[in-house]
Amino acid sequence: MGIVEHIVVFSVAWWLILFMVLPFGVRNHHESGEEGEDGIEMAAPVKPNIGKKMLITTGITFVVWLCFWAIIEFKLISLG
After folding, report:
1. What does the DSSP assignment read for 15-72?
2. How many other C-beta atoms lie within 10 A of the C-beta of residue 54?
3. Which of 19, 32, 47, 57 is most deeply buried (CB count within 10 A of its CB)?
4. Where do the structural domains in the chain lie, given as residue ranges?
């Protein structure tokens, strides 16, 4: 497999894992007991920590991609 295929696999896996990681640790205004300001929905997250979740996603994705690379490189599974 070439570099383009590996980039595609990494990108698709990154987005899938991001959507799995996003809901962890999120509390909305209603759950936290904070009073909402005018114009803020009570179901909106208080501190979503997007940057931290993106770093965690990148780390997990790297491990998943490394497993994928090892399977392809060492021909652990025959693809044809």
Report:
1. HHHHHHHTTTT--BHHHHTPPPPTT--TTSBS---HHHHHHHHHHHHHHHHHHHHHHH
2. 14
3. 57
4. 3-73
